[in-house]
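Next up, sample data.

:::
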Amino acid sequence: MGSSQKDRGVRIAIDRGGTFTDCVGNYNGEDIVIKLLSVDPANYDDAPLEGIRRIMSHFLKKEIPRGQPLDTAKIDSIRMGTTVATNALLERKGEKIAMVVTKGFKDCLVIGNQSRPKIFDLAIRKPEVLYSTVVEVEERVTLEDYAEDPERHLTKVDVKAGTTEAKNADLVMGLSGEAVRILQRPEKETIRAKLQEIYDSGIRSIAVCLMHAYTFPDHEALVGEVAREIGFTHISLSHELMPMIKLVSRATSVCADAYLTPAIKKYISGFQKGFVGGLGTKGVKQSEGAVGARCEFMQSDGGLVDVDKFTGLKAILSGPAGGVVGYAITSYDENTKIPVIGFDMGGTSTDVSRYGEGRYDHTFETTTAGVTIQSPQLDINTVAAGGGSILFFRNGLFVVGPESASAHPGPACYRKGGPATVTDANLFLGRLLPEFFPKIFGKNEDEGLDPEASRIKIQELADQIKAETGKEMDLDEVAYGFLTVANEAMTRPIRSITEAKGHDTSKHRLATFGGAGGQHAVAIAESLGIKQILIHRYSSVLSAYGMALADVVDERQEPDSSVWKADDQSVIQGLKDKMEALKEKSRQALRDQGFEDDQIVFEEYLNMRYRGTESTLMIIKPTAEEAEKHYNGNEWDFASAFVRHHRYEFGFTLEERDIVIDDVRVRGIGKSFRYEEKSVDEQLKTIQKKDVDVKNTHSTAKVYFENGRMDTPIYKLGDLSVGTVIKGPAMLADGTQTIVVTPKSTALVLETHVVVDIEETDKNKDQKGDGEREVDPIMLSIFGHRFMAIAEQMGMALQKTSVSTNVKERLDFSCAIFDANGGLVANAPHLPVHLGSMSTCVRRQAEIWKGKLRKGDVLMTNHPSYGGTHLPDVTLIMPAFNEAGDKILFYAASRAHHADIGGITAGSMPPHSRELYQEGAAVKSEKLVSEGKFNEDRVIELFHKEPAQYPGCSGTRCLADNMSDLRAQVSANQKGISLIETLIAEYGEDTVQFYMVAIQNNAEQQVRNLLRTVHKRFQGRDLSAIDYMDDGSPIQLKVTIDPEAGEAVFDFAGTGPEVYANINAPEAISYSAIIYTLRCMISEDIPLNQGCLKPVTVKIPPKSLLSPSDNAAVVGGNVLTSQRITDVIFKAFQACAASQGCCNNLTFGFGGNVAGEKEVKGFGYYETIAGGSGAGPTWEGTDGVHVHMTNTRITDSEIFERRYPVLLREFSIRKGSGGKGKHRGGDGVVRDIEFRLPLQVSILSERRVYRPYGLAGGEDAQCGLNLWVRKVKKARWEDTLRKIQNGEQDQQQEEEEKKKKEVGGEAEGYEERVINMGAKNSAPMKAGDRIIICTPGGGGWGKSGEERELDETRDPMGAWKMGSHAARMDMALQA
């Protein structure tokens, strides 16, 4: 069937984008390219159909009338990428759906991972959920063993999930090989009644996600069966879509699928109506009458799939995926193996990706339009900067985006009254040529671009700059400044995706495509150190061209839990069998789509990780060549491949740990069309070069480059023959793209590409003399980006190289860079509580070690009197020297929360510590690394031995994790140092130091302006507030503002004395709270640095709980008192009602090395729990979210039960706990945990007595509550009497035991008691005991019943699709 069709018809590939639809047709070796508007209702209903009509009219040499069904007999294949799914998600226009979930987890998607998307937004906006209603199923299973078990006990079970025997067994073997305990089976008829009710309400699509269904799918299958019987038209089951661990990601994915697939099916059936004869495999098989055409859609993973199998979950990156396939196939050479970075710049955004090692980079978790999806997708990262990004001058800085002018009204030059954008700056500078642009603008859609409109908008910006700064800049400078800043904004994520995975950007080529790529390519490449740019001749329609070259793909995956043992063949054989079974299923699916066995190839993967970590790596089976080179010819040596990859990506390996396999994956590939062209490298070898002929010049123009306007020749690409060399400056253009060749670059025309080579430029771009220099706002904006990018990349390095859950998963760390005096220059916004406090710490250490530090030294400290916050937060500081090595230029520092550093309880967060030593190791100032040598013995001394010398205290309970995390912190600091050294090499030491100061002055100016505004708003009244800790200690504040100077005094006089407990807060914490609250109230992005505190004088009464003595306990100060200080500041400024005001710190575990006792191997676990946020003048509070001083994530429910001996009974919103008001406060959460082994459990919390306040007439929120549900022996007066007459005790006891058995076992003699633990407590809990933590809500704003005044403006980033680094970057992009 395959071959007879191949030479028969027209091949068509289409990319339906947001603005344009690109079509590429091929027939008998001839290509045709058509570009049309995606939406043009006046002329046609469906752009892809219209494109196909035009292509067929061209090849058949006759005009086919619009509306006439197209004959598929003349078509070989149609391949398509579409944004239908993405648009339905962005606009929230999918199907109405219901989510079916295990009882206790109905709010799992509302809470998500509990972090807030933007840490400085008081009006917290979480993405809305996709479902309309939730059904809870009374069923429950859990995993029998736990990963943190020091004994490594494994339960063996013979009964397998999915078999008939499994229906009655209590213990079964899950698909992943883990033992699963069935706690409650679902009742079929109860499910039926609940689903029938949903069906009767009009819902036809459901998403089912039950706890641990990735390994035990039986209960989900039952729900699916009942739903089919009732008649639901679409049923998404999580174990069929993506059998991977993580309840929240799986539930979001399954909801996205149920939400989007019906929309896609509707679109496809409308599309199919435009043809005579069927489409897709089925259509080809039904060859009666008209012959069908193959029809395939591009999936997010870069593979095509038959039209009938295309689903919503796999469609989200359908369009951009085509572009990646396009540049990967046309720009990568299998022989030279030079990796390629793809740069696809469109109107509203830019997609960045990488292709190297001859295979695509996939990621398994991405966020699109606020929905986190678990499914294999190409690792494409989207940046909110494109041709339509709007230009602003804000707070003395040049700002580009993230707001976009989109297609309507579009840039100013589109003649629709739009704002100044990147496109306008390009047009004004002569880098965009109106005569090559389609004439589709103006009233009658027949005019070209309007350069005058662009000039007017740029003039307005120049006037604003002069008014605000007094600096006169000509228009060219202004426009070029914005382009420079836009390029910097785009290179930041490119650096992240390449360097975060251990790749060096300068060793890549840049493949640029998309409408606007050619204008920015050279600048982007220069910034990344890339020497060569490739621009394909179809670069403006490369996504569509990529569809034509792509392969059909069938993905299969199954969970696993084996531990790799090289000497145990049974494990490896088991994996091989699983792999073969998946390959057979995949082979069959591809045969059904018309592929012969010789056209099918497989990529085989194992998803692997070290035990005790959650960072999995998807490892592909080594090729024969790789196996020969690295693994002694063993192609199945996955373990060595994993270790090698781990070292490359993370910079370290954990030799002593087991390697665990989480998933087995197969990617079946049906090879369809081959790319016949020669590669770029082959063409470069044989090409005959010749200089461009002057006769070919189309025209000349004055184009602006770095040193001013230059006469620049313009060439039409079609007029240039192969081998032509064009030296810059020059412009190459055709109807779809413009390529800017700068003065220091040269273009060469090949058959398939234009290659642009960039000359080495001299470094030190901005060397100024010693005279007075003034601040250049463009340079200031660029340095703002660069400093921030350094802090972010330090954060990535730390997250990547760390081992503990705290750092890697919960992201409980911060990284920053400081000037030579210890002033904060840039702090990636990880955790607000670390913001101002780290500089106190760096300053103090700089004073102590003045003149004694050498290159390669690293200092360690965590003591509260030395700028620390609480002991688990360990800070490492590294100096950077000038070239001579005799002067410190700046410091890099990282602070991470260590899971345990000793003390009286596991997790080092004791609820009733009274003295500092009870909280673990306290380090005032130590040199951890001397000239590059890490002092491991000293760490063992400080962390393990010293704390255990105090009464009742243990040393650290996880020394190996401490070591790994300290090393990770060292490598993060080294990363920061090397990046600043690069910056100095580029701009010179003086310039970098000058802008380190300038950026602090800029922030200082913003805070002064804020203080003046506040003074005006309160008409000069002093601002004051008081609130109380649960023990009654007052925290009092009076703020006095001097409007002339723009300065303020924060005076905490009246605050209570130091406490004989652990809520004392070191002084550094008050500074953090002030810097955080000021940044929240300046509701715009400003650099966060020392400058913010310059206009502020802080007065803290000595000997108060905000200035405790050296040995006072402080563990609660960081996580509890910091929140109260924040509430008090916001209350004084009347900014918003109180949020939950607590972190709800829960720790549990066992083991330790207490003095005088035998050392017990154990574990410690720590988490903080979300609550409600406070309402404000224009917003409602948010439910179940982390507030103010913290933003750490919660461990996913399934991973929580896999790692620890616990059963999570419930994690839901605590309805009604938020304060009522005109705008209601957010609700807290309920977290109900049952322990399956005896453990020591501790809770450290606040707001259990004093309620979070409402403001402006709003009501207070509910307090929190911590409950211990325990089984206690029933007290009977007979027992008491018998104890008194204890003579007959033995005989009586025997009779008692007998009686108990008769009554029905031991439980009869016990009863369940609910005990209030108070705010701070620790208890030895038995197996079966539970702790229920009910967290506080947020206060309400305004009187109930008043009309609401909500600000409905949408967040410009709210509808964003991002890549795999997005979760980290969306926070980083704000600062």
About this structure: The mean pLDDT is 88. The first strand starts at residue 10 and ends at 16.
